[in-house]
Amino acid sequence: MVLEKLGSALKGAMRKIAGRGFVDREVLEEMSRDIQRALLQSDVNVKLVFDLTKRIKDRALDEKPPSGLTQKEHVINIVYEELVKFLGGKASGIEIKPSRILLMGLFGSGKTTTCGKLALFYRNRGLKPCLIACDTYRPAAYEQLVQIGEQIGVPVFGDPKEKDSRKVMKEGLKKAQKFDIIIADSSGRDALNPEMIKEIEDLNKILEPEERILVMPADLGQKAEEQSRSFQKAVGITGVIMTKMEGTAKGGGALSACATTGARVRFIGTGEKLESLERFDAERFISRLIGFGDLKTLVEKAKEVGAEKTAEKIISGKFTLEDFYQQIEQLQGMGSLSQVAKMIPGFSKLGKKLPGNFMDIQEEKMKKFRYIIDSMTPEEKRDPDLITGSRIKRIAKGSGCSESEVRELLKMYKQSKKVMKKIKPGRRGMPGFMKQFGI
Ligand SMILES: Nc1nc2c(ncn2[C@@H]2O[C@H](COP(=O)(O)OP(=O)(O)OP(=O)(O)O)[C@@H](O)[C@H]2O)c(=O)[nH]1
Ligand SMILES: [Mg+2]
Fold first, then answer.
1. pTM score, two decimals?
2. 97-106: per-residue pLDDT in tens?
3. Which end of the chain is more exposed for a tag (fewer CB within 10 A), N or C?
């Protein structure tokens, strides 16, 4: 898997730091070498690697820990923050609204497959997608897209006999009027070339898409930079989808190369199946890589503050469904609930009363919960008590889940809110990033 080496190097470095009384220059040098080695093995550009580790070292030596954080926690926080920045920073939200999307990229990058993945993504969130087959260059491109459309019940507009992709786009658009999401496939080439760029510019003018997405395979490494610059210049890309992330240890090169051009990675493809598409979020990605669950002492502290924050939210009536979702998601990454519960003062007895088994929620169910929450209005997310009868029906339909699944999520949320109300907030406070490792 991508950046596996970085993950284990980071975990090792964090453990080393956690085991020391104080982080001095020597420890910092050692950590920075571990990170450098891992990033270079992940195919990240040498200069970027050295800039990054220099920034980490400089900050660790210069900045005073903010109150509430120990020096060790502060250093770990810096590593985390700098790595998140390195991979493009905080994720921008993906709006679930009617849009036109143009996909572009070189041969075999995964454009056609990704058309299907995106259509499925939006369809699962209650929108009506269609596909336009504008690759008139590669033989049987139309048939491939039709086959993908059939798998997910999404119509495909195109003409296998037409050689001019511009005409296909114009005709397709006429038929696509009734659809919320219009996704256009386009043709690739084996290298960046003027003919392909001209074609994409023309298709862009006809479609006038809100999203102009460059599709690149993760094993492209540092070459991702040149590609994203060229397409950026031609049509001003709004995002990147990095495919084949599951099959490479070198994805770091492509991810960081994109970050240098300001091209945001929006999704990652993690397999050939149409379901294998995930939103990319540098914060979550790095949290997972650091594997915070391993660092017991820090996690322990994070739990306390997390519990405190949760309690504050509940008392002030601000504990939303999103908070609940994040909680179970985080709990899952941390080992068993009973273990976590032991670390939180006042939680151990209550832990037993928690509804169902939070820790055992399967990945599939988590995905469904995500779709369900995404299909709610902001008002409903803030105040889930509003969700009754016809709203449940609408949300079920919008998310592609059953009404009983919507009810199940609501029930779990309500029960946990009730139980959480009884948590005694911890004594120590800790600001900053730890909160996301807490509950
Ligand atoms: N493992 C893996 N394979 C993928 C992923 N995305 C696409 N593929 C595979 O990559 C190959 C090429 O994908 P296509 O979608 O045909 O690529 P394309 O960019 O449309 O290619 P051209 O039309 O030839 O330019 C196919 O075998 C896909 O199944 C991914 O995220 N992971
Ligand atoms: Mg294709």
1. 0.70
2. 889 999 999 9
3. N
